[in-house]
Amino acid sequence: MLCFLLTGLKHSVQEVEANDGSTVTFKRIHHVHVQMPDSLEYQPVECSLVVNAAGAWSAKVAEMIGIGSGPEGTLAGTKLPVEPRKRYVYVFNCPNGPGLDCPLFIDNKGAYFRREGLGGNYVGGISPTEEDEPDPSDLEVDYDFFQEKVWPHLAHRVPAFQTLKVKSAWAGYYDYNTFDQNAIIGVHPLVPNFYFATGFSGHGLQQSPAVGRAIAELIVDGKFQTLDLSAFDFLRFYTDTKVLEKNIV
């Protein structure tokens, strides 16, 4: 797999007069500019289409083509509402905890855990409230967050977890969709060769097989074939049509 730093998108512009006399600007990407690994060299790469699957940095990529830079309240001025959100996952040990037949457990407050291997180890965590959102500028782990926000819920559900011991932890990023916390899948209406596969808000790994097939169908066939995922398109941000789920973590 070739990895490089995307530095820009080069495009052409076509202006079309709408029925009401206004001008609609369409763009088409022709090249992406990239910086090669361990090099100061920049290269233009010709392309027929671009799939924005840049995760937490998808909005930065969208800005490179001018998405969201138009007048406020217009389709051209509608931004991609994705931002990085920092999340912690903790590994803890409890020899007397639930056995191998324990499923993934999620309580009604959002705290979760699952067993990890044969040594009495578990992984778990909880998504913070808006008030407790950590600074996403680094990936340092806050162990106090586990003590104050996660452990009380786990110990309430599983009394054996009163004596658990945290062994390690890590932090990573959600590509968080601030609009409705759901996926953004499909093509941009004003940039017909710019596709989205982002905004999964923590569910990307679970949904990736279906999303990969859906994007492939959209590119090759011009429409969804297996599952109709049109409800997750970019246009919903302009029309203020949220796709909400009641029971998600």
TrEMBL record:
Which Pfam family, just one, is annotated for this protein? DAO
What does the record list as GO biological process? mitochondrial respiratory chain complex I assembly
The entry's keywords: Electron transport, FAD, Flavoprotein, Membrane, Mitochondrion, Mitochondrion inner membrane, Oxidoreductase, Respiratory chain, Transmembrane, Transmembrane helix, Transport
- Xref: InterPro entries: FAD-dep_OxRdtase, FAD/NAD-bd_sf
Its annotated compartments are: Mitochondrion inner membrane
Domain FAD dependent oxidoreductase: start-end pairs: 41-218
Q: Which GO terms describe its molecular function?
A: oxidoreductase activity
What parts of the sequence cross the membrane? Answer: none
Q: Name one GO cellular component term.
A: mitochondrial inner membrane
Which topology term describes how it sits in the membrane? Answer: Single-pass membrane protein
Q: What cofactor does its activity depend on?
A: FAD
Which Gene3D superfamilies is this protein grouped with?
D-Amino Acid Oxidase, subunit A, domain 2, FAD/NAD(P)-binding domain
Top-level taxonomic group: Eukaryota
User: PANTHER family attached here?
Assistant: FAD-DEPENDENT OXIDOREDUCTASE DOMAIN-CONTAINING PROTEIN 1 (PTHR13847:SF287), SARCOSINE DEHYDROGENASE-RELATED (PTHR13847)
Described purpose of this protein according to its UniProt entry = Required for the assembly of the mitochondrial membrane respiratory chain NADH dehydrogenase (Complex I). Involved in mid-late stages of complex I assembly.
Query: Under what name is this protein listed?
Result: FAD-dependent oxidoreductase domain-containing protein 1
